[in-house]
Amino acid sequence: MYLEIVSPEKVLLSAEVTSVTVPGVEGEFQMLNNHAPIVSVLAKGVVKVDGNFEIAEEVKDDFTKAQDGKWHFPIKGGVLEMKNNKAIVLAD
User: Which domain of life is it from (predicted)?
Assistant: First the structure.
């Protein structure tokens, strides 16, 4: 699936990924390829991204690589839309 993580200042990630886990307001949930369409409000927490992709050098400091190999991106909240194998995270 294709994932975009966008902040008010810039596009942080735009890549083909294996999975993304987000902090929904009613709990954390994961999306894989062919996930049903969804719109969700996101709570403060960490967006966890798995896959074989590169993080752009100018935003690498915004992400951390966890021991499980996933990239973590902390957010204060936001909105997620998943439709047609494309997920967009509008992060605060």
Answer: Bacteria
Domain that holds residue 32: 2-91
- Distance of CA 34 to CAs 11, 60, 72, Å? 23, 28, 22
* DSSP three-state, residue 56: coil
Mean residue pLDDT across the chain: 94
CATH number for the domain spanning 49: value is: 2.60.15.10
Spatial neighbors of 92 by CB under 8 A, at least 6 apart, are 7, 8, 75, 76, 77, 78
Rounded Cα–Cα distance for residues 51 and 92 (Å): 23
With 0.90 as the threshold, say if the pTM is over it: yes
